[in-house]
Queue: 2 jobs
Job 1
Amino acid sequence: MNILLLGSGGREHAFAWKISKSKLCKKLFVAPGNAGTQNIAENIYLNINDFNEIKDFVIKNNIELVVVGPEEPLVRGIVDFFNNDSELTNVKIFGPSKKGAQLEGSKNFSKDFMFRNKIPCGKSKTFNKETIDEAFKFLETMKAPYVLKADGLAAGKGVIISENIEEAKKNLNNMLLNEQFGEASKNVLIEEFLEGIEVSVFVISDGKDYIVLPEAKDYKRIGENDTGLNTGGMGAVSPVNFATKQFLQLVEESIIKPTVDGLNNENIDFKGFIFAGLMNVQGKPYVIEYNVRMGDPETQVVIPRIKNDFVDIILKCINNRIKEIELEIENKFATTVILASNGYPEKYSKGDIISNLEEKNESIIFHAGTKLNDNKVVTNGGRVIACTGLGNDLNSALNNSYNLAKSISWNNKYYRKDIGKDLLKK
Ligand code: AMP
Ligand code: GLY
């Protein structure tokens, strides 16, 4: 079948890499894609939030399956748009409904969902500018550090953690009264701080049943030893050694099953990924947030470990048959190190020519912010390349990632040297 994949990051290159290996895929288009997807699929320029433009392309090119990478089109309701259009009845789309996507699109919605379904998470309350005095009072009842979260999508920047109450009040003022995150911080959650280590768990659900994909750990900060500004993610590893069988069983019983049962009981259409960002608090998992898409760069370590035909998984999910899938996982470690443009996540340059883009033994290059310019691959974003390595143990996977990370070069390359190192010590 002809397949259209929406998105342009490392996650989408990893999806495209896997989809293009499927025997069910005749032709793959990626919109807008990057220099990496251009090698294995056809890139086309479409605005991924302009559903009419996508519809025209889908009809003209006999697309039978649309796979959505990032959250924004999902939160804006692309799945409802496709499923309710009589000219698109033969087209399948993989992702949650607009209501389901609220699990990521509104932290207030997702918190209420967790409270209703008794899913372990930090206690919290939501406030707006009319209730700011109550918010200040509520802050007084909490302990430091104080967690403030913009309700809406804020490009991964909407969480502010303050060490003392004065700072928390100032930040709350900025969010609610000065609209620091625009519309997204019209409502702000004040949440209990959860102390522990983070791990991400990924599920594919058809709204009734689910399969659990390999877990991963992401390294979010720009600087080594988890210092400096938050980024989209500077590296990832899978599997995660502290996520023991017993812990993952607890995750399934206390989080995944109640989440999917909640969607089912509340009649929320959901055929897509559930990405649960978890905190392991002394062996007990708590949800920090849900996303309704895969993680980036977590995809670049999860997808290479899945042996099954990915298009078959997606189609079974859309057809309410996800429970027929028997997931086969490569018994290997996967790691990825992100090569970023110097300056990211703040100001950085674009257009630097990238050289030595050659894969080595047990390694895969996934492009993120790249494009072709006069047949040369140039930088085109903050996170540029994901260097994925595979190995029989964490150390050899990391060696394979770092061999790539060292050899690929351009003028303003930056990467963290400590990805996965904390887990080697455990
Ligand atoms: P989010 O955008 O919800 O993933 O939050 C960004 C980061 O803030 C998370 O990856 C955590 O490191 C941190 N964070 C969010 N909520 C909490 C919490 N309740 N307790 C501790 N850390 C948190
Ligand atoms: N790497 C974190 C995310 O994709 O949200």
Job 2
Amino acid sequence: MKKVTCTAPVNIAVIKYWGKRDEALILPINSSLSVTLHQDQLKTTTSVAASREFTEDRMWLNGKEDDIRHPRLQSCLREIRRLARKRRGDAGDDGFSRILGYKVHICSVNNFPTAAGLASSAAGYACLVYTLAKLYGVEGELSEIARQGSGSACRSMYGGFVQWVMGEREDGKDSLAQQVEPETHWPELRILILVASAEKKHVGSTAGMQTSVQTSPLLKLRAQSVVPERMAEMIESIRQRDFEAFGQLTMKDSNQFHATCLDTYPPIFYLNHVSQRVISMVHRYNAHYGQTKVAYSFDAGPNAVIFTLEQTVNEFVEVVKRCFPPESNGDPFLKGLPVSPAPLPQKLLSAVECDPCPGGVRYTIVTQPGPGPVPLQDLNLDLLGSDGLPKQSA
Ligand code: DP6
């Protein structure tokens, strides 16, 4: 049996992907750009084993066996095996070809609760593709395959600041992720995830963007003329480490994405009352300082992702606690990078004054930009036993 284990990161888009021009190949109607989050806080771990003894391909997700026949999963498996055959064929036989004929067992876990509503498909598919590539000895460009698992997954194939270039070709060969700057480029940048208490399950991204493409004139305008300009500005703001420009663009792009959701017919709502309070809290905080010190971004759910710089974290967390007094449920309110208590000057307090919403934010994860997928260092932590079955199930 040959076994490989790797981990992969979550990414948060600051220029959003919303809408496909090809559903099967997952080709987007606009380019997008994201920040890869550090795996010390959020990651997917995947073990893959190949053995002559296995009678079928099987998969376990977060402790439970899942349907391996899922079309997107099948696309990834098929494409990586195709690539392996091609590249191994070129390189001559060296043992990798033998395992290409074997069935695989795949076991994957997230270190963050799926119930938290954090997108797990990006890290999940990035990890799957990266781990399979290691198993079959495939090197080089893999984002084209990860994209076929979930669009946003292609950006999780790199660390730091990553763009997904939409491409022009019909076969998708030029619709790839590229690193804009590495994770070390902007060491002061911090990301806070405010996990909002959600009332109900929301419309999934895949279905949501399909309806938006069919019905929203605003989305068309966004893809054709807003995003191309914003991509260039965003890349420049990152290169210059210009937080004012970066933060403003991030908020405007999140807002426009949610505006296209409202422009969709019937409309889709991802923001809830907690998200709206976070938005006004951020704007009041920035107005107090007369500059953009914090910026929000929301994906297809009510959780807020806050971008800020290291020197602002302690104070802003105090503001969050004021507006959303933590409810003690045994769990810590703060997870991830350390945060110290900070005094809140009276003037700032009155500026951000809000009706407190106890428990509106369940907890906050503090993190920073991080690297792309990596092979697991500690081999004792792999997920499949010597029998090729999950070591533990939930
Ligand atoms: C709002 O990548 O989850 O998070 O390609 O259908 O799997 P599929 O969609 P997905 O969509 C992500 C949408 C978003 C914005 C973004 O990450 O760019």
